[in-house]
Structures are given as structure tokens and as C-alpha cells.
Amino acid sequence: MYFLILGKPEKVFSLNNTIIHIGFVQALFGMLIFLSKRPAHFSFKILVIWFAVIAIFLGTLLLPFQVVDYFKPGVFPLLFLFGPLLYFYVRSLAVESFQPRWKQLFHLTPLILVAIHRSFSNAVSISSSALPGSSENIYNRMYFSLAVISMIVYWIFSIQIILKHRKNIPFYFSNYSKKNTLTWLFFVIALFFFLFLSDLLVYFLERLLETKFVNLPFLEFNLTVFAFIMLFFGINQTVIYEPEELKENGGKNESKYDRSAMSKDEIEKIRKLIFNYLKERKPYLNSEYNLQMMVTDLNISRQKLSQVINLGEQKNFYQLINEFRIEEVKTRMTTPGFEHYTLLGIAFECGFNSKTSFNRIFKEITGLTPSEYKSSV
Questions:
Q1: pLDDT for res 211
Q2: Least confident span in 12-26, 177-191, 291-305, 353-367
Q3: What is the CATH number of domain 247-376?
Q4: 38-47: long-range contacts at Cβ-Cβ below 8 A with a sequence spacing of 24 or more?
Q5: Domain limits of the chain?
Q6: What CATH topology corresponds to 14-244?
Q7: For the whole model, what pTM was predicted?
Q8: Could you say which DSSP state residue 104 is in?
Q9: 217-250 pLDDT, tens per residue?
């Protein structure tokens, strides 16, 4: 299983050569797409880097020479970018206002160390079969061990980030949806595990046991499939958090003020403002309504709104908004203009986005199912 070939194989099947060209072109196309995609988002920059790495890997397979003969570190060290790229891509989508810091350059440490070591050792192509017991064979085992550990660690970190994000959804969103729960991102992470970790583990075992399980090279196919999937999801992904420049207008002074304790009078004043705003304007009728929309409408910082809702009302944003939605549903049940609506139709008109969540929330608040409540009134 030639997952980490650094040069052109001695025998290249026409099918493999076709797959290489397709994957290489896809990677270049992906770079152009996300360099020009607007509005710009940090996740697009990560995808550009990711496609560039894939293009380099596949591009070396099209060269008429062994890369290691001309560039001693080879392209193998770039493999240590795949774990961090997955991690930062997930963070850019699941962590609000995520921006990398200089200290996070330590994620490049494995790449740099392996590149330096290969530069001063008798480096050989990872795809070549070094003699058993030779230093090259030992080095290859060491490289693959580090690569396997690196990808597993970053894969676990990526899952933890999504799970943490899902716990925070009620504090920002008024509904659960495929968009804000990042369900599609779980598929990408699963694909990453299948295409990279499983293949890398098999290749490591082949080098460790000095045997070969499969004679067909899978590098071209795996990278091409992954490039296609990332291109598809990257184009169709929607940003669930607004960019930083579209947020609060208070600036540094307001952020500093937000960290100070709010007086009871101020909390009560904001509380009344929130309730009057929700009763009069009914923004919750929009199923996509979130806390940032409230910030924009009321021109009050998120810190203050969150403090009033979470501490003052002893509930999160999700609970508060859905209580108003339930009251609106109850009102419309007895309003003559809505007698031709079904209960689910009324629920959707009031901002709910699924039958299951509507029935569950309605019973939690009223103690009755929607049908039971309608019969009682």
C-alpha cells in the first residue's frame, strides 16, 4: 500500500496515472476556488493550504525522478501537516472568532524535526524497501510511528471540539439544525480516519513486519477522493458564526466594561428591554434566529445579554426563545385566522424547525402534548 510514495513508481498503471492527474487538477482547482471565495473566512485559508499540500504530494508522482535524489527531506514531512490542518479546520468552524496565535506554530514541530533529521541522515524514499536492520529501515519505522500518533491525537482533538461546540449551541442558537450542529463535519472526520489513519496504519505494519498485504498503490486514490470531498463540502459549507468585523460596535472600551459587574438596576433595565423587544417585534418567528441577531437589533453587547439571560433569568438563550415560541403557538391555536393551520404548520410559522423538537419543548413547558393542550382549550 503505497500511501507515502515520494517519487514516481517504477510501473505506473494508466488508471493510476489518470487518478493522479484528476487529483492534482482538483487540488489546484480547490486552491483557486477558496482563494477567491467571498465572503472570506479563515476556514477557506486552511483549505487552500490543505489543497496545496495534496497538490505537492500528487505532483511529485508526476515528476520523472525520485524527489529524494534532489531534495533530501523529501515530501514525507508534509504528512505531519494533515493532522494540524484537520484540527485547525474544525476549530475555524466550531469555535467562534477563532484566529491562530504565534504560539500555535509548535504544531509544526514534528514536521521540522523529521525534515531536519532526514536532511542529515542517509535519507531514502519512504516507498523504497530498505534492508532489514539498516538505519534507513529503523528511521522509516520511527517516522511512521510519529505520523500515526500525530494523526490519531489530532483526530481525537477534532472530535472533542465538535462535541464541545454542540454543548454550547443553546447559549447562541434558538434551534438545533444540521447547519449549526456541524453534522457534515463528522462525516469529513470519519473520512479522514478511513482514508489516512487506516491506510497509514497498514503501511506502518507492512514496514514493521517487513511484508506486504496489498500490491496496489492507494495513495493516488485516497488523496483524489479526499480532495473531491473537501472541495464539495468546502464549497457548500455555511459559516455558522459571523465574522468578527460584523459583531458588536462597542470596541475595546465596551469589552472592558462588560467584564465589570452589572448593577441590579442595569440588569433589570436590560431584562425589560429584551422582553419588550421579543413581545413587540417577535424576531423568534425566524427559525434561524440567534443571539448575534439580538445583539445587532438591541445594540447591546453579547456579554451583557448573556449575563442577563443566563444569570438573571436562570436559563439559556435557547430556552428563552422557545418559551416565547410556545406562547405564540398557544395564542395562534385559539386565533380565528389560524383555524385552517395544522399544529405543525403553526409550529413552523412560530420558528420551530422540526416536529420532534416542537413536541418535546411544548410538553416540557406546558406538561401537555400540543394535541392535548388544544383539546383542553
A1: 67
A2: 12-26
A3: 1.10.10.60
A4: 39/239, 39/243, 40/243, 41/92, 41/239, 41/243, 42/92, 42/98, 42/99, 43/89, 43/92, 43/93, 43/234, 43/237, 43/239, 44/234, 46/85, 46/88, 46/89, 46/92, 47/89, 47/230, 47/234
A5: 14-244, 247-376
A6: Rhopdopsin 7-helix transmembrane proteins (1.20.1070)
A7: 0.81
A8: G
A9: 566 777 888 888 888 888 887 778 765 443 444 4
